[in-house]
Automatic annotation (TrEMBL):
Nucleoside transporter/FeoB GTPase Gate domain mapped to chain residues: 19-113
InterPro entries: Gate_dom
Protein name per Swiss-Prot or TrEMBL: Nucleoside transporter/FeoB GTPase Gate domain-containing protein
Pfam families: Gate
Superkingdom classification of source: Bacteria
TM annotation in the entry: 21-41, 61-85, 117-139
Organism, scientific name: Symbiobacterium terraclitae
Alphabetically ordered keywords of this record: Membrane, Transmembrane, Transmembrane helix
Amino acid sequence: MDLAASVKRGTGAGLRVLWELGKVIVPAMVAINVLEQSGWLTRLSDWLGPLMGIFGLPGEAALALVSANVASIYAGLGVVVALGLSAKETTIVAAMMMINHAAISETALVAKAGARAGWVLAARTAAMVVVALLLNWLLP
């Protein structure tokens, strides 16, 4: 295969991935900005702050977790980017999203495969909590 064909195919594939990610990340960032401008982000943060504070995160970080579970992990990443979290906070929330993203849909799939969905969801959630607590404790 020649170089020109490889570059053309790679560029096309890269642009398709960029388009797919952009369709999710850009709306998530816009939604966060709308919530912030309307004052709802502050209200949500105040309400969820105590819970997220256990993990060393601001209350707004809960939106990233919800987005990663309801939409996709890419939507959650879009929220993380829009929030402008510190490196430590980004690491913690990213780890939480990696462990427990798409929990709703994946738990339904696990149940169809014959596993006990409640136990799988509980294990994933427990793992997410333990990892987040450890990262909050260990990271400077």
